[in-house]
Amino acid sequence: MSGLEAFRKEARAWIRENAPRPLWGTSGSGPFEGYFGGRKCEERDLDLLLWRDRGIEKGWTAPSWSKEYGGAGLSRAQEDVIHSEMKAIGVPRPVAGQGLAMFGPVLLEYGTHAQKLEHLPKIARGEVRWCQGYSEPNAGSDLANLQLKAERDGDWYVLNGQKIWTSHAHLSDWIYCLVRTDPSARKKQLGISVVLADLETPGITVRRIDLISGYSPFCETFFDDVRVPVGNLVGKENEGWTIAKAILGHERSSIGRSIARQPGSAQREVVARARKHLGITKGAIADPLLRDEIAALGMREEAFHLTLARIQQSAESGTPGPEGSVTKIVGSELKQQRYELGMKIAGMQGLGWEGPGFDEDDLQYTREWLRSRATTIEGGSSEIQKNIVSKHVLGLPEGKK
Amino acid sequence: MSGHEVPSLLLDDEQKMLSRTARELIRERAPAARLRAFRDTGDPVGFSGELWREMADLGWIGLQIPEAYGGMGLGFFDLCVVLEQSGRELMPEPFVSTLLLGTQALLLGGSEAQRKSLLPGVASGEIVLSIGYDEPSAPPGMPRPAVAVERSGDRFELSGERAQVLDAHVADRIMVLAATSEGGSTLFLVDPARAEVSVTRQHRMDGLNAAIVRLERLRVGADDIVGVLDGGASLLESVLDRASVGLAAQMLGASEQAFADTLAYLKEREQFDVPIGSFQALQHRAVSVFTEIALTRSAVLAAARAIDEKPAEVPRLASLAKSIASETFLLSAKEAIQMHGGIGVTDEHDIGFYFKRAHAAYMTFGTPSQHRQRWAELHDY
């Protein structure tokens, strides 16, 4: 048995012994589901809280971070094993969110020892929740066009401008922001820096954005003469674009994976809706055309999960292939296909917004269908992902966009 | 299935070596352009028996055949490594007929005597096998008429015909599915050299070789049954599952080659003074093909692995692999033609052969919609 296989046995045993039973089968174990923590967290689910505490004590909220930073000092491969063992029984990770999935790994790579000591343990313990300040009204797909100004004033940066799509800023404590520190740089990518700000700093205003689903995970965050110590600069001034791209890389892979949920779950969900709304004739879903569409979805879901497994296997074997770049594209489209099909199946019962005549499941489903339109836009639109694959994987020459 | 339960979808070092060696030899000795030469010269065989025996000497033909019958005793997964490479150049050699149909039928249902008399010859490249059966995608009424059986005790008399029997024009033995009872069918081993058997070569658009096999009061005995009496349909289903996976591996290779040629063309062909690969309209189409190939590879490898390690998973994964590989190969070939522009629709360019084969393979062993229906049944909806 290899060392990793021995570790898998150990991890499996610990997780099955310590994950509270009611949490089993509730989660796809992605990085963005479960307990998010932070100072504003009002989580009351005792099982989630118990699981959080056990995870923190074991260092398995951030297994591959060193103990000094709140982790367990394990390898990335061991961390993958832990996550796959959690996924195997469908329990969430003990702590979820941007801090662990995206900001933490980047701070580990680019931050100073003091910055890591200050921020990472609080992330690993779920005490501080982070959000991301990237997009601006005029910097979406063309992210490098961002304009939020950070002007040096002694030991301070003074921030002025606006961020948008700052997911869950209203529930977060800190923001990691891309800011413009050199407006006169010869290329717009060159004058960008990464700065961290406590959202309670005077001058920061957070406003929620309603989506077509009626829900509001997103916010606009305004900066009006916000003073941030220069010690909150990550990496070197004006060299933040490299860091931004690294974070986006983490975002792509984590979005793809977080969409994945449990293998077969999309098919099961849609089949359950079909049984409920269409009925069964001689053991088969009554509408043969929709049944065919469900099978097509189920097959694609399976192929996607097998591809995620293959990517993980090749990463564990030390030779990652180029397929990782397609997970965001395929995963986000798959999510939309699932909801579109579920809505077709529900027919008129999918038209409810609230109130009588519609059941809770159908109302909820409609909201999620609406929300799913954003999956091919957020975290880099499918078109931007295709540009990236085209250039970096297929080696096609860059042209006019 | 969840994360860690997926068996390895990676090639080990020996399989990688096999893949490289096969690719080099096939690229050099068996380029897709041979299909044009076989067609235009009216070659009576339509493939190279010499190359087939050479590959047998390298151990590739008998890879999956047990050592007791002169093979290498490796897995179906290993065979798929070679099949993928054979697919890259659309090789017309009898991989499908002999290895994916005949050999699998013998391995799954053949008697010890049948295996002993035929498998060593298959492994050495001397014996070509095939099966005549009803394609799921054949129009109703085909074949005309089905093979009928008159039975007296242990003797059977077969009459009827099967069309598009792959490589039947050179096959040493052909297995024919015949109706032995109401709703029951049996697979019989037939020697085409017998006078009651006539074989008429057919010419297909895709360069694979086939023939119509006619049986006229052909007498066979219980020894000629492959599997059990009236058990032909379920044996054939298992054979076709394996054949679907093997064909999917060939389709994967062919998709990759068509895509690789297209990618190279996008980088070299210039219009408006720039490589056409710098146009976003074409870049995004190329990425879509790349994406489908990545998904297909995972499905094919998982299905191949299941044949060796997880037999209960074979039916649904075979349907998945056949379905997705069919769609991907057709997409890859159609996109290749479109992105090649005018040259892509000329006979001078090889890409047309990929398109023809893509359609033929799509129709063989069940279409994607037939496999989706089966998938739904297997998942109990």
Molecular structure report:
The complex is a heterodimer of chains A (401) and B (381). By secondary structure, chain A is of the alpha+beta class. Chain A contains eleven helices and ten strands. Chain A is globular, with a radius of gyration of 22 Å. Chain A starts with a helix and ends in an 8-residue tail after the last helix. With 381 residues, chain B is an alpha+beta fold. Chain B has three domains: 3-128, Acyl-CoA dehydrogenase/oxidase, N-terminal domain (Butyryl-Coa Dehydrogenase, subunit A, domain 1, Orthogonal Bundle), CATH 1.10.540.10; 132-231, Beta Barrel (Butyryl-CoA Dehydrogenase, subunit A, domain 2); 233-378, Butyryl-CoA Dehydrogenase, subunit A, domain 3 (Up-down Bundle), CATH 1.20.140. Helices cover 50% and strands 17% of the residues of chain B. Chain B has helices at 13-29, 34-40, 49-57, 76-88, 95-109, 112-123, 232-268, 280-309, 314-340, 351-363, 368-378; strands at 129-132, 148-152, 155-166, 173-181, 184-190, 197-203, 209-221, 225-226, 270-271, 274-275. A four-stranded mixed β-sheet of chain B has the order 1-4-5-8. Chain B has a four-stranded antiparallel β-sheet with strand order 2-3-7-6, with no helix packed on it. Classes of the chains: A alpha+beta (401), B alpha+beta (381). At the A-B interface, helix 3, helix 7, strand 10, helix 8 and helix 11 of A face helix 7, strand 10, helix 8, helix 9 and helix 11 of B.
